[in-house]
Structures are given as C-alpha cells and as structure tokens.
Write a structure and sequence with these properties.
Elements (H helix, E strand, L loop, with lengths): L5 H14 L8 E4 L5 E4 L6 E3 L1 H9 L1 H10 L9
Antiparallel strand pairs: 1-2, 2-3
Length: about 80
C-alpha cells in the first residue's frame, strides 16, 4: 500500500477539522470486521456485541431497568 501524498494528508486533515469534536452523549453504531456491532459514546471504550447478544440484551431491557432501580442506592451515579 502506497504512502499518502502530502496533498491527500492535508485534505484528510481538513475533512476531520470540519467534523469538529463529537458531541458528548451522542451514540454511534458501527459494524466491525468480525461482524459485531459496536456502540461508541457510552464511555472510554466501545461496547461490542454480536447480533444475538444485542437481541438478548434488548429483550431483557425491562428486567435490567427493574434491577437498576432496585440497586440504585448501591450504584455510582454521575452528578
């Protein structure tokens, strides 16, 4: 693979600068090389699960909410 030219690097830098910094709290979804779905924007690192795992997690959403509420006093909360 050839090294990018100065002009190509300069154009890429200008493109990235136009995008600016990402908004805090916004989520971004990507499909990885191995077929997993990654969610960016939750924390420092992305959360990556495969299709079946996402479906299981989404299906247990109400159970997870109940668990979180029951254990809210034990959890670390921002703010």
């Amino acid at each position: 693979m050839a090294e990018p030219t100065y002009e190509e690097l300069k154009a890429r830098l200008a493109e990235l600068e136009k995008q600016g910094t990402r908004r805090t709290g916004s989520l971004e979804f990507r499909v990885g090389e191995k077929g997993g779905v990654s969610v960016y924007g939750l924390g420092r690192f992305p959360v990556t699960l495969y299709y079946e795992q996402w479906i299981r997690l989404l299906d247990s959403g109400e159970k997870l909410r109940e668990f979180l509420e029951e254990n809210k006093s034990k959890l670390k909360l921002k703010g």
